[in-house]
Amino acid sequence: MILLQLSSAQGPVECELAVTQALRRLHDEAEARGVRLGIVERVAGQARDTCRSVLVSLDGNQAASLAEHWTGTLLWTCKSPYRPGHKRKNWFFAGQLFSAPAESLEGEIRFEAMRASGPGGQHVNKTDSAVRATHLATGISVKVQSERSQHDNKRLARLLIQQRLAARQQQSEDDLRLQRREAHHRVERGNPRRTFNGSTFIPLD
What is this structure's pTM? Predict the structure, then answer.
């Protein structure tokens, strides 16, 4: 299992729409490759039903190659559906990959089993498969209950902690350069890894 984050960075609402459409496209590509996709975290965008950023888990034999295909600067070329008279047609967003943590990380994490909670009625897992994971060195703590087995929740929790650690390290490096934005807030304008075109978000690759 690996984590992939799609982010509109500091872009306008059109970039958030691009992330939303990219998520749908990613879901289709994952299904075609036999990769299981799960939504881990989603940050809502300015417009209704859009995402400013989304963190997904990918699991399967082709998960790594699929994620790599979505890593880097991404471009959506289309007239703005929100501002018809706007001249800009290029909307940049980004994908960032978080691979599996090193085995040594596992020994630095304390796991606590607990019962899943929250909305969902009969769909909420009623067993003690939910876990709270705490990274002892930093105190970073996450609770995961999205998977049905404790083993899978532990695996996802390790990935989430690794993402938090990577974001913290990136922030430290940015501070040294007087850049106060984390990795998913930066998008290189130009040289996109992939380009999508039109309102139907057709990939040009």
Answer: 0.66
